[in-house]
Write a structure and sequence with these properties.
Two copies of one chain form a homodimer. Chain A contains three helices and four strands, in the order βαββααβ. By secondary structure, chain A is of the alpha+beta class. The first copy, chain A, has a domain of 92 residues: Alpha-Beta Plaits (2-Layer Sandwich). In chain A, α1 packs antiparallel against α3. The first copy, chain A, is globular and about 40 Å long. Chains A, B: It holds the Pfam family ABM. Chains A, B: This is ABM domain-containing protein.
């Protein structure tokens, strides 16, 4: 991993304060947005998706992921990464992962994949009270600031 | 909208080649990633979500959206925008939208909202054949290039 040049603060350790959320991450970091349409039911899918998730979580620079799929088979998985180098390393890992071809050969009819740089992030929780999710960065509330990343409560 | 300074090519007209996908968009553009946990069943949710979607679609610079929610109530909606100005205008619109407070008061227990700049985008379809979704931009395949945006087929 000599090519990796971490730039995010050390507080960027994934702290899953809430199940299903990759919260408490301080921008900037990268998001890999994977939107996919499943072809239909395939009993191998769940195990394969779990294997992919485990593989991603072991990668350097992995910060977390969020995933949802509706009854119509359309799903969105967003994985979060520390920097370009960690995304590039994940790409290389995928090239050697058999699970990747399974996605094309068996699971998906179509997918779109986007690599995006997260510039601002905001969170809101019913226990935290109101915050402006679209307010300017640094305006307070629960906008994510550098050095954030400490889970102040909630389930793990 | 005097503040708007469109930078994306005119080909950035939403062309929904496939239901549920905001595909055929050429980077750079912005992605607003909204991950939310619903509190429970609320018969007002569907109508409100539809109203929000219609409101977004009427905004200048709106390019499309993708959304999925699982049976556990965790959902991800990614809306795509032409530039920072169009995201800022959407924020202003939300400040006057009653549907926004409904989300906090009735529908969600927690949400995370991220504004990210899409730098690379790739698509794969079972009819198009294999493409490297994580390949370098401009490497061919079905990576999105400036001037893309023309739907070459598929349902609308």
């Amino acid at each position: 991993m000599s090519e990796r040049t971490p730039t995010a603060p050390t507080s960027q350790i994934p702290v899953a304060c809430r199940p299903g959320f990759a919260d408490r991450l301080a921008p900037p970091y990268l998001a890999v947005i994977f939107t996919s349409q499943r072809r239909g039911r395939d009993e191998a899918y769940d195990a394969t998706a779990a294997a992919m998730a485990r593989l991603a979580a072991k990668q350097p620079g992995y910060l977390g992921a969020e995933s949802a799929r509706g009854a119509d088979g359309l799903g969105i998985t967003v994985s979060y990464w520390q920097d370009d180098a960690s995304v590039a390393a994940w790409r290389q890992e995928l090239r050697h992962a058999s699970v990747r071809e399974l996605g094309r050969e068996r699971f998906y009819s179509h997918y779109e994949l986007r690599v995006a740089r997260v510039e601002r992030a905001y969170g809101w929780d019913e226990e935290d009270g109101i915050a402006d999710p679209m307010g300017p960065a640094g305006a307070g509330g629960t906008s994510r600031a550098a050095g954030d990343g400490i889970c102040s409560g909630g389930s793990t």
